[in-house]
Amino acid sequence: MEGSNNKSGENGHQDSCGVLLVTANLGSLFEDLDNMMPIWLKAFYKVLQRLQPRFVAIHCQEVGGKNFETGMNLVNNFIETLFGSEEMRCYRRSHVVMDKNYQATDDFTALGNIYFIHDSIASPKYYDFKSKEFRECEGHVRYLDNLSQSTSHEKMKFPKNLFPESKFSRKGFLRTRWCINGSIFDLINLHLFHDASNVIAMQSFPSTYSNKRKKALLAVLDRLENDQHDKVPYFVFGDFNFRLDTHDVVKALTTSASGEYIKEDNDVVKVIFTENGNSGKVVLTLEKKKFEASEISPNKAKWLLQFDKEAGSFSEHFLEHEKSFAPSYPYSEDMNQGEDYMQTRVPSWCDRVFYSKSANESLIMTNDNQAEYEVIGADVCMGDHKPVYLHFSLANSKGNNISPLRNAMLTILYMCTLGPRVI
């Protein structure tokens, strides 16, 4: 599922603007905000300074953390700190929608969408889903504790029957629509259900969890294609919780090993694979929430790409830029081990950025080699999920180009205001 983009402008950068799309599961961040936020923001600002995007979208999942009753009190602090830095000086228009109302259990998703626009972008507009009209994005608009008053988004929590194993789910999607430089597109924040048990996931592929994720995502895509709003190109990025083909990963790791299956109440609860012969070396230990394998680490993960099959079910719907980064989950939450995986799950590319074929054909420019698909903070602790971003050049709609002189002046101003910052 690799996109091949051919849209180009006659005037190079004058006909495009840099777009940065980020997906970030913040569950771990809010568990230790005082210590983790400075590190997280420093890594994010580093990418922001290097790429200098004109339009930025951050799609957050698990806003407020696992203990959201107390963690929600920290969300506003995170937003204020994010926007209060020197790096954000030239982004004087923003739009934030956060689903923080955990008391509304039937609707709560813990999703949050953060958008900010550089001063060089003329007349950015967001869509009003109630009036079905675009509205000018002016100043800083934030729906943090009053999301119900916003008409600039569409939200849905997935019904319980999709994920019956989960007693309480925060899974769903949060959608916005934008008009930037005359180009119209949807941005969808998505959070799908995880693999509850490694033991069950290893039995077959697609697993029962994969099938439920597929059903939920197809429902979202069907809604995009058949609802009352005009059909436009889209980008869907979030925590898809896509997992590797665990059955074949286990098979590959244990080709010369034998498995001991330990049961409780006639159910397998643990499997220990020991190397054949006299060495007695344990090559893999697998339990519901344990996956200990010495042959898997971030710097030895490229071979796992062959097992990244789940997204293939959606190749008729959307595309993905070529991945060169290691699986984005599950990284250690230990502040001193940010480059290591936790031995809890099969490392997987859970956090992804996909885009419709129409977006690939009409919006994305790669003639200037700007496209970049990577993780943020590869060498530091960002929580159990590494944020993943796609940066590309957005082609302007004809007749809506930025004045080259105005763009050059604002770029100089932007560069002058960005200096080294220690957080």
Structure report:
- This protein is an alpha+beta fold and 423 residues long.
- 20% of the residues lie in helices and 28% in strands.
- It has eight helices and 20 strands.
- The strands form three sheets. Strands 1, 2, 3, 4, 7, 18, 19 and 20 form an eight-stranded mixed beta sheet that branches.
- The two termini are 38 Å apart.
Furnish the topology, listing elements before pairings:
Layout: E1 16-25, H1 33-51, E2 55-61, H2 68-71, H3 75-83, E3 93-98, E4 112-117, E5 125-128, E6 133-136, E7 140-143, E8 154-157, E9 172-180, E10 183-191, H4 198-201, H5 208-226, E11 234-239, H6 246-253, E12 257-264, E13 267-275, E14 282-287, E15 290-293, E16 318-319, E17 351-356, H7 357-362, E18 364-365, E19 372-375, E20 388-395, H8 404-417
Parallel strand pairs: 1-2, 3-7, 10-11
Antiparallel strand pairs: 1-20, 2-4, 3-4, 5-6, 5-9, 8-9, 9-10, 11-17, 12-13, 13-14, 14-15, 16-17, 18-20, 19-20
The helix content is: 10-25%
Q: What is the count of helical runs?
A: 8
Number of E-state strands? 20
Roughly what is the average pLDDT, rounded to an integer?
Answer: 88
The shape is: globular
* Main sheet attributes: strand count, strand direction, barrel closure: 8 strands, mixed
Structural class: alpha+beta
Distance between the termini: 38 Å
Rg computed from alpha carbons, rounded to a whole number of angstroms = 22 Å
Poorly predicted parts: 4-14, 398-423
Short description:
The chain has 423 residues and is of the alpha+beta class.
Index terms:
alpha+beta, eight-stranded mixed β-sheet, 8 helices, 423 residues, globular, 28% strand
